[in-house]
């Protein structure tokens, strides 16, 4: 199991913004993953999508890594931010853009 944990850890720490999701940013395989992709694309955040459907070990591993039961999961600068509901609420409140900017992640100017 440590192999998958190391992989998750390196993805989380090696990328400013990582979305563990079902499917890929170009082809999300679930509505919740798709919503987070739309939000990140809308605000113009650069992020890496990691498809958890490629491996059952990865799917289970990410839940244990974050202590969070659902996917998608968004990490910014090595920190777990949340799943679809949290990201959507932050976005609707205008907090997501501010949060990313504070973390040094470039986003498009808010609409």
UniProtKB/TrEMBL annotation:
Q: Which PROSITE patterns match?
A: GLUTAREDOXIN_2 (PS51354)
Cite the InterPro entries for this sequence: Glutaredoxin, GRX_PICOT-like, Monothiol_GRX, Monothiol_GRX-rel, Thioredoxin-like_sf
Boundaries of every Glutaredoxin domain copy: 17-81
Question: Which SUPFAM superfamilies does the record cross-reference, listed alphabetically?
Answer: Thioredoxin-like
Q: What is the lineage of its organism?
A: Bacteria, Pseudomonadati, Pseudomonadota, Alphaproteobacteria, Hyphomicrobiales
**Superkingdom, taxonomy of origin:** Bacteria
Annotated Gene3D superfamilies: Glutaredoxin
Query: What name has this protein been given in UniProt?
Result: Glutaredoxin
**Native source species:** Mesorhizobium caraganae
The gene coding this protein: grxD
Alphabetized, the UniProt keywords read: 2Fe-2S, Iron, Iron-sulfur, Metal-binding, Redox-active center
Q: Which family does it belong to?
A: Belongs to the glutaredoxin family. Monothiol subfamily.
Q: Mention any Pfam family matching this sequence.
A: Glutaredoxin
């Amino acid at each position: 199991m440590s192999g998958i944990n190391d992989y998750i850890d390196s993805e989380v720490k090696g990328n400013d913004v990582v979305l563990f999701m079902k499917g890929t940013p170009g082809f999300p395989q679930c509505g919740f993953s798709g919503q987070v992709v739309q939000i990140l694309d809308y605000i113009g955040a650069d992020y890496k999508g990691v498809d958890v459907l490629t491996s059952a070990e990865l799917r289970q591993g990410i839940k244990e890594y974050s202590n969070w039961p659902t996917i998608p999961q968004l990490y910014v600068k090595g920190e777990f931010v949340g799943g679809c509901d949290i990201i959507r609420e932050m976005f609707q409140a205008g907090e997501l853009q501010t949060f990313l900017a504070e973390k040094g992640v470039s986003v498009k100017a808010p609409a």
